[in-house]
Every structure is written in C-alpha cells, then in structure tokens.
Amino acid sequence: MKPTDIRNPDTFHKVVDCQWACPAHTPVPEYIRLIAAGRYAGAYMVNWHSNVFPGILGRTCDRPCEPACRRGRVEQNNGDDPEPVAICRLKRVAADNKGDVQARMPKPALQGNGKRIACVGAGPSSLTVARDLAPLGYHVTVFEADPKAGGFMRTQVPRFRLPESVIDEETGYILDLGVEFVGGRRIDSMKALLAENYDAIFVGSGAPRGRDLDLPGRREAAAQIHVGLDWLASVYFGHVTAVGKRVLVLGGGNTAMDCCRSARRLGGVDVKVLVRSGFDEMKASPWEKEDAQHEGIPILDCRVPKAFVHASGRLTGMTFERVRAEYDDKGRRRLVPTGEPDEFHACDEVLIAVGQENAFPWIERDAGIAFDEWGMPVVDKVTHQSTLPHVLFGGDAAFGPKNIIWAVAHGHAAAISIDKLLHGEDVRERPDPLVQLDSQKMGIHEWSYDNAISPDERYVVPWSEAARKLDSISTEVELGFDPATAWKETQRCLNCDVQTVFTRDKCIECDACVDICPTDCITFIANGEEADLRPRLTAPALNVEQDLYVSEPLKTMRVMVKDEDVCLHCGLCAERCPTGAWDMQKFLLLEMYAGSGCRGAKHKEAA
Q: So what's the pLDDT on residue 601?
C-alpha cells in the first residue's frame, strides 16, 4: 500500500466518524469537550456555525452521527446493543445552558450589495441560505405560507417533542440578521416570482403533501380518515383538539410516531400503529419507536391495509392482510401473504402516515425548469441549481423527504452557489474546508485534553412526570441532561478527533507501542496490497470502510500499519514511545460557507 497522505483533509476527517457521518460536518468532539468544561455558550456556537439549529436538532435530529460513533464499536461487554455517545442530547445541553448568546451572533450587514434573493418556504434549508447570505449584504426575502417561520419544524413536529419557544428563538437569530420575512404569503406561481427580477431564487418548500391510500371505503368514511401530515398541522393550529377513543395509525416512519403519540394525548385510549414492513425495517428512528412503545402504543408489523370498513357512512374499522418478507439474491424485498385470515381492527379514526410527496403545482412547466419522470425538478447534486441556473432547490424540495440536518447541509451548499454565481465565478469550484492539526503535548506524558477512557454505560435522558400522564399535547416529554449527568456522558467520548500522528524518521522499531495498545490496532509488518495486508495484521482489520494508516518504509523495510477503525485515541502509544515518534494532534475541520473565503481562489472542482 502507498503511504497515507495526512495532508488530505479526508484522511483524518473519516477517522472522526461522527463528524464524517453528519451531513453538516459538525465537529462533534470539539463541542463535547467544551460542554465537559462547562463552556456551554462556546459549544452552542460551534454547533450553530455548522448546523444552524442546535436547540431544535438537540431534540429532533435523526442522529446519523450516533450509529457511526466509535464507542458503539469498541466498547467492551455491550452485548448486542452497542451504546454510542448521546451526541444529540449533549447538543441540547449546550442549547439549554448557553445563556444569552446574542452578542456572539453575526450582525446585519452595514451596507447591502444590491443583490436580491428570494427563498420560498421558511423551513430549515431556506433559513440556512438566509443565515449564510444576509451578513454578506444580500437582501434576502423569505416567503412562507404560514404566519411564522420554521416550516415543518413548527407545524409537523409536536410540541411535546419540540417547544415552540425553541423554534422562535432559533429562527429569530436568523431573521434578526436583516432578513425580510413575509409570512402568510404562499407563492403560487414561479413565473410571477421570476417576474419580480430577483437575482436568485431558492426553493425550500419541503415535501408538503402526505400520501393517501386509495382503498375500498376511503371515500365513504372520509370524515374519520386523515392524512397524517395535514392532521399534525391541524393539531398545531388548534383545528383538531380531540380524537376518537380507538385510533389506527398507518405507516412506519417518524411522522407515524408523531401521529400516534399525539393521538394518545388528544384522548385516544386504544391507539395502534400498523405497518407493512417488519419492525426492524421501519423507517422511524429506533428511539422514536421506543418512545411510542413506552407510552403504551403497540406497533403491529407485517400488516398490509386492504379496506376501510364502514356502516351508514361512518368508519368502524379496517381489514389487514398478514404478510412476511422474502428476499431475492440481490437483497430485494417482497411481501408475501402468509395465508392467515385477514385481521379486522375496530377504530373510530385512521391517521395515514405512509410517506410524503413533493408537490410543485405552482411551478409552471414552461417556466424553464426541467422535471424528471417522477415530477421532481432536475437539480444538480453539488450546486443545487435547476436548469434555470439562478433557481436553486434544497431540502425535501430538491431530492425528496429526508430530515432537518440534510436540509441544513443543502442550504449551506446552495448559499455558496448563489454567492459564487452572483460574483461571476464557477459554481462547480467548491471551497476546501479549513483544517487545523495541532499537537496536544503539554509535557512528556501530559496532554491538553482528558484521554482517560470512561467505562460508563450511556446515560438515560429523564422524562418529566407531567408528560408521563399523556394529558397534554404541549408538555415536553424529555427534560434533558442536567449539567452533572451531561458531564458524565461527555466522558464517554473517545476524542476521535485527537489523531495519532506517526513520524517515520523518529521510529526505532522497538514495538513499545504495539505492546501497550489495548486494541492491538498497531502492527509493524511487510507491506502488501490492502486485501493481503488487512488479514495479516495483529488484529485483522475487518471494516473495509475505514482506511488503514500506513507509514513510509522504515529502516527494516517494514511499514507501520494502524487500523483506524478500533483505535481508542487513548494516547498510550504516544506516552510509551521513547523517541516521540507518536504524537497526539487535534484535527479540526470546519466547512467553509458562502463569503470571500469561497471566492477568488481556485479550488478543486466537485465531482
């Protein structure tokens, strides 16, 4: 294998698994250490720089960082249930304890640059575009059909998960940058918007339409059957304040979990979730399913809805076919009837949460924007431009339903494109990140960070007693970590951004680092091709998705090979090394956003 080039930002970025997995590339270990030091405002601003909505995401994020967390791979005696660091809930700790951070926020531009930007929809992607561009002097106007900003974060996420005060605060930070917010105005014609001569238009209108089910009895019993997304919005606006005693929720995503938990709080006594797939294949996050079950809501899987049963125009129940999943040699799933009799489930109301669809009736098909066979705009995945270069898309409106953190990442990328486009630059030249690599050595065996490995299991976030009663749609369920518990949870972080950096010329091949390594991840060995090298290491490197760290040839012509996948970043190799060939160096990667840092210089063109 060729020697590892640590000058390539991706080399060590991929080792920081949580940051690599985050669509916004939030430097997770950096803010966790700040929380451990009680510097909550600093931790909040590290988050705000990357993901824009720390308080919102600290409660609602889909947490792609946590399955990637190294702690879940290397922790001993964790059985079949690896427990990553509670990254998402620590983010909330920073938000809850930060105090007043208004003075740390960017200020409105002192002078405009004469460029006008329109954002359609006030959801997370549009607000990210506004946050990135407004301080640069752009006049950003955000149009929203609802009276207040936030998009689906406000209208579809229940208040028992996300208090409205948090949304008000974090959308307010953005609107305070001089953004013009036009609430209560639905954009119903792209041609008309284009005629207003904005320099660029960003469409962040989400995927606002919930899928319906065209089954027998749907029209006859329509009064008791509701599309989940619309129903959640009606709950938010106070149009729905009660439900029937028996409620069936159809679907296996997070919207279904929000529907069933809301129904319990609005008077539903017998609330069930029925889903076509198996329980483990549901799209809902595992913790969302657990929360529903903790509230006494059964989830019945492998049930395919067949018909709405009604009498005299009133819904009485539904019939379902029992199925099982079969997979072909390519892993494709097919649902096969089990042959059991159809099940009947009595109910008073049904909430349909079987998916979301994009709806663009307001974009005329002769406006110059191309659409694909599925009715989605043709959008460049790097620049987020449509076939009209100054019209860009992001969030669910760009590539279909995902989540808040992806919408934020899209907003950052689109803002860079808008800024470069309006400065006459090639939008495909994307900025390199800002990277720092600094030694943490404070003495012979002292580091500027705490490298002790905590043996603690993951701490559980407590629930409020009031929320356990399930009698309030607005009482927040989770209390969040108190500072003492948060500190204990921070100690479970392995500081994966503090890298073990090897200097070939200082190594005397004494193998002291090999002897002391607790995970046997260091091997001095004859070089070879990667497929040959991985099984020959002291502990075979099985995870091919994580690169090996390979040195240049040593004096014996062996190479040092380190399996980055299971390294604890404990620093024992650096402490034991008699020549200082190993050093612990903190790697900090910050994404570059719209502005002068993204312009002028020639950057590597995006693939």
A: 53
Conformation bin of residue 223: beta by default, left when phi > 0, alpha when psi is -120 to 50: alpha
**Which residue, among 373, 372, 414, has the nearest Cα to 391 in the 3D structure?**
414
Structure tokens that stand for 422 in this block: 């309006």
- Per residue in 344-381, pLDDT (tens digit) is 999 999 999 998 888 899 999 999 999 999 889 999 99
Mean pLDDT of the region 550-559: 96
CA angle at 479 for the pair 488 and 468, rounded to the nearest 5°: 130
Helix (H) or strand (E) holding 93: helix 87-97
Report the C-alpha gap between 137 and 134 in whole angstroms: 6
Pure H helices in 428-505: 465-468, 483-490
Question: What pLDDT was estimated at residue 359?
Answer: 83
| Secondary structure class of 578 (helix, strand, coil) | coil
Tens digit of each residue's pLDDT (9 = 90 or more) over 449-483: 888 889 898 999 999 988 888 989 999 999 999 99
Q: Is 376:358 a contact under the CB 8 Å cutoff?
A: yes
Residue labelled with tokens 């959008």: 379
The CA–CA distances, whole Å, from 533 to 1, 263, 511 equal 8, 56, 18
DSSP alpha helices (H): ranges in 480-584? 483-490, 512-516, 530-536, 572-576
Tokens of 333: 């799933």
Q: The tokens 């917010």 sit on which residue?
A: 181
pLDDT of residue 78: 56
* Site of tokens 């619309």: 230
Q: Is the pLDDT of residue 222 over 70?
A: yes
Q: Please state, in angstroms and rounded to a whole number, the distance separating the CA atoms of residues 248 and 270.
A: 8
Each residue's pLDDT tens digit, 386-434: 999 999 999 999 998 889 999 999 999 999 999 999 999 999 999 999 9
User: How far is 395 from 410, CA to CA, in rounded Å?
Assistant: 6
- Rounded to the nearest angstrom, the gap between the alpha carbon of residue 204 and the centroid of all alpha carbons in its chain is 17
Indicate the burial class of 9 (C-beta count within 10 angstroms; 0-12, 13-18, 19 or more): middle
* Rounded Cα gap, residues 419 and 132, in angstroms: 10
Distance CA 176, CA 92 (A): 22
Tokens of 454: 């905590």
256-260, 283-287, 317-321: least confident range: 283-287
Q: Which residue has the tokens 């479970």?
A: 492
Domains of the chain and any CATH numbers: 9-104+454-492 (1.10.1060), 116-207+358-423 (3.50.50.60), 209-355 (3.50.50.60), 498-590 (3.30.70.20)
| Closest-CA residue to 278 (of 257, 306, 299) | 299
Q: DSSP class of residue 136?
A: G
Give the global pTM: 0.93
Distance of CA 164 to CAs 52, 212, 227, 228, 481, Å? 17, 28, 23, 20, 20
Tokens of 504: 């070939």
